[in-house]
Write the structure tokens for this entry.
Amino acid sequence: MTSRRTRDRLITRLREQNITDEQVLAVIKETPRHIFIDEALSHRAYEDTALPIGFNQTISQPYIVAKMTELLLAAGPLKRVLEVGTGSGYQTAVIAQLVDQVYSVERIKQLQDKSKERFQQMGLKNIYLQHTDGGMGWPSKAPFDGIMVTAAPEKIPEELLAQLAIGGRLVIPVGQSQQQLKLVIRVNEMAFDTHIIENVKFVPLLAGTIR
């Protein structure tokens, strides 16, 4: 289940899908994905597939985690990153091993509490969590060098664009039935460059919080 060979196969598959950032590949190889899912599904932990984590949420497939992380870091190291949608905590843990600080918001309290336990298990001390409506981000901690969104809004929230530092990068899935992964780079106070990366499938970004 967690053998070196199983993880090696996953990394080989990611390379075949054109993930080239060696730091990202190394972190995914060493991150214990099996602790981020229910024990009943742990035998599938290193398959390149999304898996359910309860509350109609999923843990993203490793390819998407790798792709979004690679896009976020493509311009160089980042200090402060906002993640919208902690979920299982897997994507959070991957980013946390590659940047200085991760500020992660989650609307479902039980998912956040489980994630916190997993971060402690891994010894990750640079992750800061808040239980809040994800579309609002974390304004008091802005600006962020990078923002990653792990659920899809119908359009890019203005609140998140406002929290992006100049030169900062936002990686976000956008749309409803047809979703596109987008990379947005803040050029100056008023201007943003938007790039369409590929078609994706994410759970919707919903408003409100759940205890």
Q: What stands out?
A: Strands lie at 51-54, 57-59, 80-84, 101-106, 127-131, 144-149, 164-175, 179-186, 192-200. Residues 109-122 form the longest helix (14 residues). The chain has a mean pLDDT of 93. The chain has six helices and nine strands.
